[in-house]
Amino acid sequence: MVTDQLSKVFSALSDPTRRDILVRLGEGVATVTELAEPFPISLPAVSRHLKVLEQAGLISRDRQAQWRTSTLRAEPLKEATTWMDHLSRLWDERFDRLDAHLEVMKKQLQDNQTTPEDKEENDD
Amino acid sequence: MVTDQLSKVFSALSDPTRRDILVRLGEGVATVTELAEPFPISLPAVSRHLKVLEQAGLISRDRQAQWRTSTLRAEPLKEATTWMDHLSRLWDERFDRLDAHLEVMKKQLQDNQTTPEDKEENDD
After folding, report:
1. Which of B36, B73, B85, B107 lies most in the core, judged by the most C-beta atoms within 10 Å?
2. Residues A21, A49 contacting (CB under 8 angstroms)
3. A87 in contact with chain B, both atoms CB, cutoff 8 A
4. Residue in A8, A81, A95 closest to B84 by CB
5. A23 close to A62: Cβ distance less than 8 angstroms
6. Which of A52, A50, A48 has the alpha carbon at shortest distance from A8?
7. DSSP state, B31?
8. In degrees, to the nearest 5, what angle opens at C-alpha B93 toward C-alphas B88 and B94?
9. pTM score > 0.80 for this model?
């Protein structure tokens, strides 16, 4: 299901180590050992992160000789970016309408500040 | 911490109901009852989703008379979108480099297919 896949992508992105791994994979295919190198965590912990990224479809894992390497997969990230762009546009429209609404409210407030009582007082 | 906030935003986005709530809030401020209306889940369940969105900084919750309303907050979403755009650019560069690398490999493969043995055979 598309929605589920999107949830998995966002869930995979909700961890700083996994985000760093994705940035690192932007430099090229890497083995688990290479990916683990900058992190103060164990190889099995890195493997678990890779499994989450793989299940989200963000990476594919292949065996090259005795090494298991990870490679980026662009499509699910694009889908997530598209969804966020869609939401951003909706929100921008909302904030534009809100600005217009606030202008109307501001005008009403200014008008109310000149109440009939004020007018009468002013008239005196 | 910025990273933590980003993790919270992605985590908040990793649920289809919460994403639908964010889209609904693009139409305007809403009460819990209004937000719960389209979903087959209880009011407390919707409240829990709203709490997650609030902790991620994606919405703010205010009390208007006896109603508690939710409003969008754009900044954290923008930060998350910026991070994803950054990653997308990194990945695009990576795929461009990969394409170039594959071209080189393809050429090498073509050259290897014309091995010295082949050449000798061809020479015969």
Report:
1. B36
2. yes
3. yes
4. A81
5. no
6. A52
7. E
8. 95
9. no
